[in-house]
């Protein structure tokens, strides 16, 4: 893996022709008002997963920050939603990771998400105080680890930097006491939407990809 000497930009705008060659089953989104196109975007299977997780992350952590709903009720709802997001991730990306021969990355994310749900639920339902008091640290750490592993697996500087951003988020949590859930949700949402709206660098072996 040679990340430092690569000439490909870390992030760049999407080009429809290239995207159509790299991915199958992409979605095109157009927003028109009075006949004028206000927004147009193209979303690969990976982009769709980023958007889904961005919405889920924002919903979970913003609700945890502001809602009076009990922790047990939130735990049940968000566990179901996280597992549903994990299933959607598997369905949307399974064909692509098979073609690229990187199924292990998908399995890693499944383990991270399911493991995070189990630890979170143990903290809430079993009274594991240390986990309950550090839920933001837990999820930023798990997701940061996932990005680092994925970035290493596909030789992506964008994903490696995203992982480091999550660990930087852990470092700043002590300075936003009282707003940690909101800060966590915003870090996750911003990272995911940035990745969804851009074409990030990727360098897979020729035997596993057409990159």
Mind explaining what this structure looks like?
- This protein has 211 residues and is mainly alpha-helical.
- Helices cover 66% and strands 9% of the residues.
- It contains 8 helices and 4 strands, in the order βαββαααααααβ.
- It has helices at residues 16-22, 45-66, 71-100, 103-125, 129-132, 135-154, 157-172, 180-197, and strands spanning 11-12, 27-33, 36-43, 199-200.
- The strands form 2 sheets. The protein has a two-stranded antiparallel ribbon. Strands 2-3 form a two-stranded antiparallel ribbon.
- α3 runs antiparallel to α4 and α7 (157-172) packs antiparallel against α8.
- The model is unreliable at 206-211 (pLDDT under 50).
Number of extended strands? 4
Please state how the strands of the largest beta sheet are arranged side by side.
1-4
Query: Secondary-structure element sequence?
Result: EHEEHHHHHHHE
Low-confidence stretches at least 5 residues in length (pLDDT < 50)? Answer: 206-211
Overall mean confidence score, pLDDT: 88
Strand content: 5-15%
Main β-sheet description: 2 strands, antiparallel
Q: Structural class, from secondary structure content? A: mainly alpha
Helical residue percent band:
55-70%
| Tertiary shape | globular
> What is the CA–CA distance across the termini?
15 Å
How many whole angstroms does the radius of gyration measure? 18 Å
Our count of helices gives: 8
Name its key features.
211 residues, mainly alpha, two-stranded antiparallel ribbon, 8 helices, 4 strands, disordered C terminus
